[in-house]
C-alpha cells in the first residue's frame, strides 16, 4: 500500500513548537513501544544526528529536521541532477528510510511517488519504468543521508520535490519532510567549429584534416553561445585525443581552457608552454574562442575538439554545471622536417702569416627538407686561455642568416672581418690583417630554416664542422731581420765605444804636449 494512504506509514505534518508534554502522551502504536521496520526501540531514546535535545517535564524531546538544498534549482533538459537530503534530530536506528515525491506545477496538490529506500514498489506509473531502468534512483550516502539522482531530466520533471522521512521517533515533533523546487530549462547551448582554412571538396559533416610542419603555428577556433534566459557562465576548453582515437571523455587530454571565472588554465602536459607564451587562448568578440599553439611538435598530432560547458550559481552560492556540448575541430598531422646537414671547413692555403688575410671556407651538404629550405652559417672561435681551449668560451666571429643578412662579431685587435656567400652552399670568413690575437680553433655551424605561411621561421636542422686551427706565423725574413737589427745595433754601440775611447786618449796626449 502507498505510504500516502496508511495511517501508520503516512507522512506526518510538521509539528514544530508543539510541547513535548502533549506528545509525551501519544505513541503511534498506542503503547510504550514503537515497532520500526528493523526492530524495536524504547521511547525516550537519545536523538540521532543532532548534538542535543530538550527535556520537558522529565521527557526527552527530539525535534526531527529534514534538510534539502535551497531552491529554486535550475537545470537543463537532457542533463543529470543530484538532490541531497539528510535528517537530523531523529530517534531510533541509524539507518533511516527516505521517500521522494514530486508536485508538478499543473497539479501542485497531487503528490507523485518517485522512489523509496524501503519499498521497491513505491514508484508511481510515470516513474516506474525510469526507476526500473536506473535512470531515476535513490542512494544512501550514510544512514541518515541520501541523494536522488536523475540521469536525464525531462521537461515534465519540473516541480517541487519533497524528501520525506517515515517516523522512527517516540513522539512526532519537528519536520518530517523538506521541499525544493526544480525548474527545467530548455537546452540553449551551442558549440561549433570555425573554419581553420579552405576545406576543398571535403564533406561539411567531416572535420577537416590539417597538416602543419614541425615548428609551425597551429591555430584552431570554435563558436560557443547559449540562449538560456537565466544568468549563466560559459567555460570553453580545447582538448586533444590521440590520432585515430575516438573523441570521448576517456580519451581526451585538455590542452587549455577558459574557466567560468575567466581564468585560463592548461592541462598538465601543456602548463609550461602556457607559462612561456607558446600556448595562448583568447576570446574574440562575444562567441568566438581561439587557441594558438606556437611551435608545433610531433606529439601535438591528434584530433582536436572544443568543449563548452554552461554553469549557473545555485541559491547556496555554489556553481553547478547545467550543460555540456562538444564538437570536433580538426584532425591535425604534424609533419616532421627531417633535414640532415654536414659541414666541412678548412683554411685556404693551409698556412697564414701575420699581416695577411686568412680565408676560412665552409662547404655544406643537405639531405632532405622541403622546397625553399634556407641555410644560415655562423663562424665561432675558441681562443686559448692559459694554454688550454674551452668550448664554453667560444665566441661568435661572424655569420650570414637565413635571410642573407650578415652578422659580425668583434675581433680582439679591432681588425676588419668579412663574411660572404661564395656559392649556393659555400660560405667564407676572412680575417684581414691577421695578428697574434687571432690565434685559435675555428669552426662553422650551419643551420637549415623553413619559412611558414605566416612568415615565421623554424629551424629544421643544424650541424657543426670539424676544428680549423689558425696560427699566424711570422715571415722568415722577419725572423732574420730581427737578429740583423740586433747585431747591427750592438756593432754600432761597440764601434762608437771604441772610437770614443781612442779619441779621448788622443786628446789627452795632445794636451800634454
Question: What is the element layout, followed by pairings?
Answer:
Layout: H1 20-23, E1 33-36, E2 39-42, E3 54-56, E4 59-61, E5 65-67, E6 73-76, E7 81-88, E8 99-103, E9 112-116, H2 128-132, E10 136-142, E11 145-150, E12 159-164, E13 177-185, E14 189-194, E15 209-213, E16 218-226, E17 233-241, E18 253-258, E19 264-266, H3 271-275, E20 279-284, E21 288-293, E22 302-313, E23 319-335, E24 340-347, E25 352-353, E26 358-367, E27 374-382, E28 395-400, E29 406-408, E30 417-423, E31 426-431, E32 440-451, E33 457-462, E34 468-470, E35 472-473, H4 476-512
Parallel strand pairs: 6-13, 15-23, 25-35
Antiparallel strand pairs: 1-2, 3-4, 5-7, 7-11, 8-9, 8-12, 10-11, 12-13, 14-16, 16-21, 17-18, 17-22, 18-19, 20-21, 22-23, 24-26, 26-31, 27-28, 27-32, 28-29, 30-31, 32-33, 32-34
Helix content: under 10%
Structural class: mainly beta
Sheet-strand content, in percent, reads 35-45%
Query: What would you report as the Rg, rounded to the nearest angstrom?
Result: 45 Å
Oligomer: single chain
Account of the 3D structure:
The protein is mainly beta. 10% of the residues lie in helices and 43% in strands. It has four helices and 35 strands. It has helices at 20-23, 128-132, 271-275, 476-512; strands at 33-36, 39-42, 54-56, 59-61, 65-67, 73-76, 81-88, 99-103, 112-116, 136-142, 145-150, 159-164, 177-185, 189-194, 209-213, 218-226, 233-241, 253-258, 264-266, 279-284, 288-293, 302-313, 319-335, 340-347, 352-353, 358-367, 374-382, 395-400, 406-408, 417-423, 426-431, 440-451, 457-462, 468-470, 472-473. It has a six-stranded mixed beta sheet with strand order 15-23-22-17-18-19, with no helix packed on it. Strands 27, 28, 29, 32, 33 and 34 form a six-stranded antiparallel beta sheet that branches. The protein has a five-stranded mixed beta sheet with strand order 6-13-12-8-9, with no helix packed on it. A hairpin with a 3-residue loop joins strand 20 and strand 21. The longest helix has 37 residues, at 476-512. The chain is elongated. The termini are far apart. The model is unreliable at 1-10, 12-45, 51-60 and 197-205 (pLDDT under 50).
Amino acid at each position: 500500500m502507498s505510504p500516502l494512504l496508511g495511517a501508520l506509514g503516512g507522512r506526518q505534518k510538521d509539528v514544530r513548537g508543539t510541547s513535548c508534554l502533549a506528545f509525551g502522551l501519544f505513541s503511534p502504536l498506542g503503547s510504550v513501544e514503537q515497532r520500526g521496520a528493523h526492530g524495536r526501540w524504547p521511547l525516550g531514546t537519545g536523538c540521532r544526528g543532532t548534538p542535543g535535545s530538550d527535556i520537558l517535564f522529565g521527557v526527552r524531546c527530539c525535534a526531527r529536521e529534514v534538510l534539502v538544498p535551497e531552491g529554486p534549482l535550475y537545470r537543463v533538459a537532457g542533463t543529470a541532477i543530484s538532490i541531497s537530503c539528510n535528517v537530523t534530530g531523529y530517534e531510533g536506528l541509524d539507518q533511516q528510510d527516505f521517500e521522494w515525491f514530486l508536485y508538478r506545477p499543473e497539479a501542485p496538490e497531487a503528490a507523485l511517488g518517485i522512489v523509496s529506500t524501503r519499498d521497491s514498489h513505491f514508484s508511481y506509473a510515470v516513474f516506474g519504468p525510469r526507476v526500473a531502468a536506473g535512470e531515476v534512483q535513490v542512494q544512501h550516502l550514510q544512514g541518515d543521508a541520501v541523494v536522488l539522482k536523475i540521469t536525464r531530466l525531462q521537461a515534465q520533471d519540473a516541480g517541487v520535490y519533497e524528501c520525506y522521512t517515515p517516523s522512527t521517533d517516540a513522539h512526532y515533533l519537528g519536520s518530517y519532510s523538506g521541499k525544493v523546487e526544480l525548474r527545467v530549462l530548455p537546452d540553449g547551448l551551442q558549440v561549433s567549429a570555425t573554419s581553420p582554412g579552405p576545406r576543398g571538396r571535403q564533406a561539411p559533416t567531416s572535420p577537416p584534416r590539417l597538416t602543419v610542419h614541425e615548428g609551425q603555428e597551429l591555430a584552431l577556433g570554435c563558436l560557443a553561445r547559449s540562449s538560456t534566459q537565466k544568468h549563466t557562465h560559459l567555460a570553453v576548453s580545447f582538448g586533444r585525443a590521440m590520432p585515430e582515437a575516438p573523441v570521448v571523455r576517456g580519451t581526451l587530454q585538455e590542452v587549455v581552457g577558459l574557466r567560468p571565472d575567466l581564468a585560463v588554465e592548461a592541462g598538465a602536459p601543456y602548463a609550461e608552454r602556457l607559462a612561456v607564451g607558446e600556448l595562448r587562448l583568447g576570446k574574440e568578440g562575444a562567441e568566438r574562442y581561439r587557441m594558438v599553439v606556437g611551435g608545433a611538435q610531433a606529439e601535438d598530432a591528434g584530433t582536436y575538439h572544443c568543449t563548452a560547458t554552461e554553469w549557473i550559481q545555485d541559491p547556496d552560492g555554489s556553481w553547478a554545471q547545467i550543460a555540456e556540448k562538444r564538437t570536433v575541430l580538426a584532425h591535425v598531422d604534424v609533419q616532421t622536417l627531417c633535414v640532415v646537414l654536414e659541414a666541412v671547413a678548412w683554411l685556404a692555403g693551409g698556412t697564414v702569416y701575420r699581416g695577411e688575410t686568412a680565408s676560412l671556407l665552409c662547404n655544406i651538404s643537405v639531405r632532405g627538407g622541403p622546397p625553399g629550405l634556407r641555410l644560415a652559417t655562423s663562424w665561432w672561435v675558441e681562443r686559448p686561455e692559459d694554454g688550454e681551449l674551452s668550448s664554453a668560451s667560444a665566441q661568435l666571429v661572424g655569420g650570414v642568416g637565413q635571410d642573407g643578412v650578415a652578422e659580425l662579431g668583434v675581433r680582439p685587435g679591432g681588425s676588419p672581418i668579412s663574411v660572404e656567400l661564395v656559392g649556393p652552399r659555400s660560405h667564407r670568413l676572412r680575417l684581414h690583417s691577421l695578428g697574434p690575437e687571432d690565434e685559435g680553433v675555428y669552426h662553422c655551424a650551419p643551420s637549415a630554416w623553413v619559412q611558414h605561411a605566416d612568415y615565421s621561421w623554424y629551424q629544421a636542422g643544424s650541424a657543426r664542422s670539424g676544428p680549423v686551427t689558425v696560427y699566424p706565423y711570422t715571415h722568415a725574413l722577419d725572423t732574420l731581420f730581427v737578429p740583423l737589427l740586433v747585431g747591427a745595433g750592438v756593432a754600432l754601440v761597440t764601434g762608437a765605444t771604441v772610437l770614443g775611447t781612442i779619441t779621448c786618449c788622443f786628446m789627452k796626449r795632445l794636451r800634454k804636449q
